[in-house]
Amino acid sequence: MSLNSSTLLNEENSQEPKINTECLESTELQSLSAHQDNPLQQLQLASQEVLEKAKKSGRSKCPRCSSSRMFYCYTCFVPVETVPTKEIPTVKLPLKIDIIKHPNETDGKSTAVHAKLLAPDDVTIYKYPCIPEYEDKRHEIALIFPGPNSVSVKDIAFHLQKCSKKGVYDRDDDFSKEPFLKQAKIEPKEEKNPDECISGNRSEGTRLKKIIFIDSTWNQTNKIITDERLQGLLQIELKTRKTCFWRHQKGKPDTYLSTIEAIYYFLVDYHQEVLKENYNGQYDNLLFFFSFMYTLIKNARCCAGKE
Predict the structure, then answer these.
(1) How far apart are CA 239 and CA 135, in angstroms?
(2) Element holding 1 (H helix, E strand)
(3) Is residue 183 predicted with pLDDT exceeding 90?
(4) Measuring CA to CA, which residue among 222, 302, 290 is closest to residue 258?
């Protein structure tokens, strides 16, 4: 596995500085546009005024479990009482997303909950080892995970559809094990262009119906990725991008993405390279909480003199 891959990681031992409200009130007057290294400033986001108000009022109760939380409850997957659900944007996704969370992953430090909060109809979070059986539908499912046999987003249609009459690949074709070059040799001599295959099936919908993400630290992924229920799934590797995650792992490349970043960037690439549609910020609100917390923590660190 390449260390330059855009991997889904959360740093479970890192700690962000404590947020000083008085300090933030002075620093939040400065626009993030002054920070040229902030790739989040161009996002088309819904108003974050509700989060600003919640920040000033402090922690609030979860309407389900009554636990004291800031912004949302990471165990019940709902906003707290001071953050009305109607003021939180809802994002409609082009496919379903399953997030498999490692049991040792700290709930309060995971960004996976952001996806569930903002796309509740399309996202499901499972805590390993309680995960679904994917074998019967593996021709409709792909797994985001880097590796020597992973393929790019733009090649998803080629590998899942293969432009065959049945539109599925044989169960014996294990793309997580078989090298790409070896696969290519068994293809029919006359292959349709993947773009033609997609356009010819637009009335039936895109063949890929579900994408799986693993929510864990790098050292914890092996237990999940080697689970027999995930074997045989097409593996997708994301383009290299720099993370904005404030819990970046020490000694690891800055291309290791948080879970919500990986979901967002996959969907942007999928929209452009598979659906062949212009991207106009359709999924930007998936970073609604992430971008706000990024600003909050960055300002706190600036105030503390760490940046």
Answers:
(1) 27
(2) none
(3) no
(4) 290
